[in-house]
């Protein structure tokens, strides 16, 4: 078979662009930010210029514009999810990862019964949406095992229902395998590029299947060919120059838009954290907090309709800040090890990397609401066929607001009824009462009021 090259990531083009935009004037930056306010995205040149911002005043201006765009498109909703690690076997040797094959620790994969146990613990915390995670190992973690895991997750119910959306984050694979995953009715297929910089990519993935830059970078082409419409990209910040990475991801997004009419559904922004067998000091491109905030804000203005995902790698303080001007989905109550939810309490297990936010979902929710955010457990879009291009059209026309807001309130009502203590019940009812009044269309407002009452009386899984 002919090897497909990922030549849409043009190293020379990115490097030239970054050189040419090296010192933009204040006027140029201001003009770009004014254009950004229309929430229609920016050109490569414009994004490259924004990446050069250093002064505190200009950064604050960028955050303000990003915050306005965020508010306009996402309102004050924040979607919650949790990762579920099913296997830490890995044949790769990614130099940054605790699971790499050179690290010696007792590896394992969860049996179906163990997966069900983990899912019950996640459901007990109120989760409805999970990200399935696994190392790459064709022998110990083959496709049949992954498919069986997906089936087990969707069919494990507690008294309040089951997990309603599984996003899958497994290694790059074939069109045939993507087709099988697609048939299992997944939400988004997620794969982090790690780094778009080919020489760095090859260096940090020595002697391994994952080390093939072209195969990895064209994974979403195969996923789209297989009919998966919602794909989620990401960069592991800290491996190469962040400016290069942001431009690389945007070129990747454009490639998908041009070829398949839809770009990334989500972008994840993990930062490199300490992991077993690696020393952070060996990575010269670590991104500090100030730069990280700038990156999030730039993604928000560059691709306004693409969800931005932040994990518990980051501390509670930082997460609280970046949800104001960029991030639309966060994980909560996460463990990042196989069997982690069971072992969490026992203090056992091997984590993939260190976690920065240790709060429970209940604590995260209370905090979000105190800051006027609406926590959402909505999973409606893909279940209503709002995927790929259809989702983007609805999002860009603003019509998506007619469903996202109401669905957030209904799923929050479920949460406070099923998992809340007295404090969150009162907090939630107050917030929901206030927000329902803001629903502009009177027919939708009436329907939501009716549904909220039905949920109070015990009905579940109502959505628009
Ligand atoms: N094994 C698959 C892969 O590598 O694509 C799927 C999931 S892997 C469990 C999830 C992600 O964890 C990787 O894509 C990588 O970006 C991230 N990761 C690995 N080591 C990390 C570290 N030390 N700090 C932060 N994130 C890390
Ligand atoms: Fe394996 Fe993924 Fe870790 Fe690389 S990042 S060692 S592929 S689990």
TrEMBL record:
Keywords: 4Fe-4S, Iron, Iron-sulfur, Metal-binding, S-adenosyl-L-methionine. Pfam families: BATS (PF06968), Radical_SAM (PF04055). Residues 74-313 form the Radical SAM core domain. Gene3D superfamilies: Aldolase class I. Its cofactor is [4Fe-4S] cluster. GO terms for molecular function: 4 iron, 4 sulfur cluster binding; catalytic activity; metal ion binding. It comes from the Bacteria. GO terms for biological process: sulfur compound biosynthetic process; water-soluble vitamin biosynthetic process. InterPro entries: Aldolase_TIM, BATS_dom, FeFe-hyd_mat_HydG, rSAM, rSAM_sf, ThiH/NoCL/HydG-like. PANTHER family: 2-IMINOACETATE SYNTHASE, THIAZOLE BIOSYNTHESIS PROTEIN. NCBIfam families: rSAM_HydG. This is Iron-only hydrogenase maturation protein HydG. It comes from Desulfitobacterium dichloroeliminans (strain LMG P-21439 / DCA1).
